[in-house]
Please model this.
Amino acid sequence: MSYILPVDQLEVLVLIDNVTDSLSTNSSMAISEWTGLLTAGRLQLLSGRCTCCAHHGLSLLITVRLGNAAHTVLFDTGPEASTFLRNAEILGVDFAAIDAVVLSHGHWDHGGGLEAAIEKIAKARNGQRVDCFLHPGMFAERALQRPNGELLKFESVPSPDVLAQAGANVVNTRAPQFIAEGTFYLSGEIPRGTSYETGFPGHVRRSDDGQSWEPDPLIMDERFISVYVKNKGQIVFSACSHAGIVNVLTHARSVFPSIPLYGVIGGLHLSGATEKVIPETIADLQQFGLKLLAAGHCTGWRAMSALARVFGDELVPSAVGKRYTV
Model:
């Protein structure tokens, strides 16, 4: 298959994000956690036990509908199992309905709950394995080199062998993939074309010798998902945008040049050392004509404020438990 199937409807449920926000108003494309729980009859008492927890990380449950068929992909699983499982239970996730799991890149805040998620899905599917899409570059030991030279090591994501033992059909490849009968596109490695999107400063990985460390700012194992909604266009899911969101969207547009870009959902990684490229990023984002900008996770408050000034109602920030329908 060399094309992506257009779908009738897209629904995105945010299982994990850095913030919780059920009080702010939303556009017609989104409802907050509490509203969604009330509508589904899952919130009889407003309490900490009955509502989701925010955690540094991201997990999105993405469902498309095409005619009478529905396909669901789990995109990342947040930083650890307990938050993922807790929020999924509160939000009423049907694990048996999940067709595939994608890990966007090899960072703990996206893959910490992966093994538990695979186990839960396999059990719900009566032992039937679930496709889990990985990239071979995800499994090197990684760290952040601090200004004083010290290394802050990252927890490693589960290995392919561990995930296979948990119930995954592991698809470990750099190649792009069409998932769920062609309704989802998983990119290959993202080309880097902009002069200012230079990756994650200070990010390093263990060298092949197993002893030394080497710079790894580009994080080439990062990939995005795209869905084509009829009469609207591509919705791009970029979990952290280490490649730079302009590079991500440029590549998505080049893969399907006849399909306009409609929206982007996920983290834009414009916080910390990358705050300096906020002006250039926002200037170039305007060329894509986005109708939905659901930024969250690692975007950062400075970038979110700047995006709000430029994009207005097109900006619908992500929050845990929020549900988008396009």
